[in-house]
Amino acid sequence: MKRMIHLMLIALAGITLLGSCQDDETYAEQKEKERKAINAFLERSPMLLLNSEGDTLFFSKKPIKVISEEQFVAQDTTTNVEENEFVLFSGSGIYMQVVRKGVGQKLGEGESKRLSCRYYEYNIVGDSLQTTNKSLFWSTTPEILDVSNNYGTITASFNTSLNGGGAMYRRYSSITVPSGWLLPLSYVRIGRQEKKGEGIALVRLILPHTEGHSEATTAVYPCFYEISYTSLHD
Length: 234
Fold this sequence. Notes:
- By secondary structure, the protein is of the alpha+beta class.
- The protein is 27% helix and 29% strand.
- It has a single domain (47-231), classed as Roll (Chitinase A, domain 3), CATH 3.10.50.
């Protein structure tokens, strides 16, 4: 009897281990699917549609040209939009295109600011617009970020006390700002537009699931973003 119980315990442990391995394999397959989706997105000439009427979020006649961080720095942390350049940050897997560097100053070390953000979020695997606050419904409700630069480490949370939270907060029910949204703040200026013709900071991002919101992290899918940043105070 004891021998039978012992064998049953061994078998149960084996089943548990097999299930764990299968889960790991499933996650590996999800990551491989994500990698292929990002690579396919990089290689095509992107046209991202906002809706079934054909309104366009992003269009380029050229496929994305990936540049290194070294080249990005050599170009004064800019990307050539005409050539559809995106810099790859190899440590995180984030791709970024700086459309406009913005006005004013960067977020200084030891400094905290409250920012307003407008964005589009495009699910690359689903090939569709997922959320945005650039619509009439959200016209008075941008994402408000409370941001701090802790001497090189940038942290942020969505502020929901001022307007109840924007589209990103309402969809994902979290005040945690996706880590990929914070990377541009090391390179763009976040002042307010004061003169005609000045453009606030605008970037485009391709974020793997590890740098996105909780749903992307759990379901393992990448997203394309277009995000603007501007300060709510001087």
